[in-house]
Amino acid sequence: MNTDFAHYYQRIRSKQKREALLWSLGLVVLYLGAGNLAEFNLHTVWVSIPHFFDYLAETVPTLHWNLLFADGRTEGSLAYWGYRLN
């Protein structure tokens, strides 16, 4: 009886491993296909990393402590940059 259970267990484990491998391969294919459709390129990402931080520096608003809670017409306040606190 113990050997029957061991064979059953091994059969179930091998089936689980096979199915896990097939699902993993399927997800990898979908992932790579989505990257191909989106025209994703690691080289482009690597080359663009320094420019990304330049972009962040240009898009992050300049806020001033003394003007932080001023009205929406005062540049340097939260309301001016779209937070609409007043």
Automatic annotation (TrEMBL):
Keywords: Membrane, Transmembrane, Transmembrane helix. It comes from the Bacteria. The chain crosses the membrane at residues 20-38. This is Phosphonate ABC transporter, permease protein PhnE. It comes from Serratia marcescens.
